[in-house]
Amino acid sequence: MEFDEAEKLCQKSLEIHREHNAPASIEEAGDRRLMALIYEAKEEYESALEELVLASMVMIAAGQENEVAAIDVGIGNIYMSLCRFDEAIFSYQKALTVFKSTRGDDHPAVALVYNRLADVYCKTGKLRESRSYCDNALRIFSKPVTGTATEEIASGLTEISAIYEALNEHGEALKILHMAMKLVKDTPGQHSMVAGIEAQLGLMFYKVGKYGEARGSFENAVAKLRGSGDAKSVFFGILLNHLGLASVQLYRIEEAVELFEGAREILEQECGSCHSDTLGVYSNLAATYDALGRVEDATVILEYILKLREEKLGTANPEVADEKRRLAVLLKEAGRARIRKGNSLVNLLDPARRG
């Protein structure tokens, strides 16, 4: 997850290609795809798009039709992140045409593109088209071609389930997740995938108010990750936060505090104190402290959140106003007032100071 260091190393590799290889080599295209992954992870989407377009040009010149299609899927993903949905659909459709032609209508690569198209149509409110692509992908993954890796099928089914969930088809989403779980639960080396499926099950149960089942699924996921030595990752921190929320709904407040504190420690280390996931945990922790009567502890956290949000968003932002209201209630309980100097209106409206 050290993306800045990865970017430096990949940049060195590209420089070596320029010095010692023929222009626009296939090897250079491979490293450009790697660089695009790094930029995507850093949310530098325009830079990622540029690298993928350059890689695509090389593969087109080399006649690597399937590689061009795979890059088109990546380009579509970047367009999705940029909310350029029409361009995403165009890229996915290009890839779909090639994969159907070269690999057949029932290949997992075709199903993967169906999933991407289902997702983009769901996000743009075209639910009938989204459901149609979901059904096509499910048909392929339900009867996979010989040689398809089990984890590839399970991953595809998990994606389909998430889209059905977004379409408010909770029963179908749960059924598909259970299919995915059945495929990988006894497969060696798949602890992280099983934990991911358990976590998704927990989220679904939570959304429909089945907090006991949600807590059980989150606990299973936590146990899987701890067993595989992956108890310091961002995913693990977020998972502890979700488990804490389920515990709150079951009135297990002291347990929730421990979970939120564990999540805070991990996310501060991995994401930093200003990251949205970390701020979310801070807010949950403040609420549980308040529920236990630890008003001073809750107030300290809310003042810290408010300070960070004011610095990043400005004092007039609705999120900042919400935090101020919460803090005012706690300060009233604690019998003191918050003293600070307000930003001038000039600073508040200066775009350079908002970001």
TrEMBL record:
> Which residues form the TPR repeats?
69-102
Instruction: Tell me which SMART domains the record gives.
Output: TPR
Task: Decide whether keyword Cell inner membrane is in the record.
Answer: no
Keywords linked to the UniProt accession: TPR repeat
Q: Which PANTHER family match?
A: OS02G0109800 PROTEIN, PROTEIN KINESIN LIGHT CHAIN-RELATED 3
Q: What is this protein called?
A: PROTEIN KINESIN LIGHT CHAIN-RELATED 3
Native source species: Salix purpurea (Purple osier willow)
